[in-house]
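Posting here for the record, re: iron/sulfur cluster.
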Amino acid sequence: MKKKCYITASVHGMCGGVFSALRILDEATAGNQEVYVFRELVHNRAVTAKLTAAGVHCVNDIDHIPAGSAIVIGAHGVSAGIEAVLRAKASSCRDATCPLVKKLHHIAASLSPDEQLVICGKSGHPEVAGIAGNSGTEAVFIVPSVNEVKALPELTAPVFISQTTVDHQEVTTVLNALKKRFPHIKECSSVCDASRKRQNAVIQLASKCDVILVIGSPHSSNAQRLREIAGQHGAKAFLIDNADEIPDAAVNTADVIGITSGASTPEYLFDAVVEVLESMGFTCGDDAVSGNLDT
Ligand code: SF4
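Prediction output follows.
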């Protein structure tokens, strides 16, 4: 009988920006005061559930935050307008926006009204809304994929940035198409290193596995990208929140299963998936030291 094994992605799991956001929240809760997080601190259901159980209020509606509260802005950041309202309401306001997202806010804010901001990212994602909402120009265009490039109007002074967690290969495709239409476009490469490294690691994994399990929540952009990229590179890929969601049918037919996790996924969820696979008879097939080698 063929031996079944699992292989873990050399880079996976929580990134520096998420660790930093958790540390900032810890500081906010240190005095046992009630803390409100505007939206989620990070896009992971288990993290949000744990924070909620510990008494932290994660709220989507500013009106549900009482005046005089201790407030933490989540890792995805907010628009300048929302930040002003939160700061006016708060007794203390800590900003857990990832510094790499904050850098994009500063770039967007530095644009003049004569320039046009072109963002490669997903419409409606809080990070994209936050970047757009800090822009110094009202001319903001969101380009989720190369298909939307031809629909753009003529742009006289376009400046390109991308959401930090999109597929870095897709960003190159979009940028090349933009350069054909707007050879004078100014560009800023802004897929973060953490996303890039996790994406490259899942490509390597896909070349060795039949099935890949990406552990992360469905609303996590970087985890969704990992699932898509694994699928594009030939593996049957599944996005699961936790070990309870391991798809039996896929796992029963696979000889080699790859495991990775998104940048906001706690490592204990990763370990739990490994444990379940081992209980099903899979052995570790890693040929090198595995684990999260880089945040
Ligand atoms: S994925 Fe990148 S941008 Fe997002 S929190 Fe992590 S380091 Fe920051």
